[in-house]
């Protein structure tokens, strides 16, 4: 049973990552009808939404694309910054979706930002406390570890609406601004959906692991009675 469980929590993220890479590889070879680079797509979306103060920069690393709310910057990986593909346009638009969320004060983005320090601390400390609790048969220590872990899991869950909303905004922008043609909408959506799968997989695995530890904790309490 445990082997099956661990196989599931390992295979789900691997499958999601493979799906992202294969989908991106496919549509990064398909040029968009507008033939704009990812950087050009990002700049046009930002300007159209009055976000002239948000910069667009080339980042480093494969699929390292992100929006930095601290410096108000959309950073695109080299292949998306320079690429003229449907994949580059979709990813660039998605990151601009986060910039638009930030400018509108999107509640889930604010909530996620507020959770960052708590989630980072929880993910770093939780497993130390959990291991001590399991090895020393200390239920109080285990419970404390589970509470800290729950904060990290909550961050993963809150990330889902943030990412799906950014993708929805991205599609609205590329369509309304004519950055992709009607026939390219389906392909751009496939890129965004594949990327969303990684967040869904991460959240699912985190919830499963938290539930497993809660069951262990309740079992230890019963044995103490």
From TrEMBL:
The UniProt keywords, alphabetically, are: Membrane, Transmembrane, Transmembrane helix
- Give any Pfam family that matches: Zn_peptidase_2
Give the residue spans that cross the bilayer: 114-135, 142-162, 191-215
InterPro entries, per this entry? Zn_peptidase_2 (IPR007395)
What name has this protein been given in UniProt?
Zinc metallopeptidase
- Record organism: Neobacillus paridis
